[in-house]
Amino acid sequence: MDTISTANSRQSIRKLYKDGLILKKAVATHSRARISRVHEAKRKGRSMGLGKRRGTKDARRPEKILWMRRQRVLRRLLRKYRESGKINKTMYKQFYMKSKGNQYKNKRVLIEAIHIAKAEHLKEKALQDQLEARKARAANLKQKRKTLQ
């Protein structure tokens, strides 16, 4: 005890520490238990009502961030569909520009629009084929009549 009370320099303190006569006190950590409990409650939706809101709607969740998120989702879907061959590059460009023009609210609406457009395209193609078949048949009949005369 006498050596400890006479230690008046850093070097002597280091020597006492090395010999094990004195111990280093642990640094007190700042507990995050309370704040983590608050975050958990907020994740569940507690303390998030109208009375607790200070910022504007745009400050709390910026519209630009929402827009970017939506555009990225829609563009990723369009790219995937184009690469898999579900839509051709013309349809891709049309849907890309429409999604940029805010025509599609979400992914589901875009998928529905793609299905409708594809069905319409197939319908037009079938009608075109029927028309061509009719024209060919009429031309055949005309040819036959000509040969009979």
Automatic annotation (TrEMBL):
InterPro entries per UniProt: 60S_ribosomal_eL19_sf, Ribosomal_eL19, Ribosomal_eL19_dom, Ribosomal_eL19_dom1, Ribosomal_L19e, Ribosomal_L19e_C
Domain of life: Eukaryota
The keyword Ribosomal protein is assigned to this record: yes
Domain Large ribosomal subunit protein eL19: 1-118
Coiled coil: none
Keyword annotations from UniProtKB, A to Z: Ribonucleoprotein, Ribosomal protein
GO terms for MF: RNA binding; structural constituent of ribosome
Gene Ontology process terms (BP): translation
Region (Disordered): 34-60
A cellular component term, taken from the record's GO annotations: cytosolic large ribosomal subunit
Biased composition (Basic residues): 34-55
Family per similarity comment: Belongs to the eukaryotic ribosomal protein eL19 family.
Name this protein carries in UniProt: 60S ribosomal protein L19
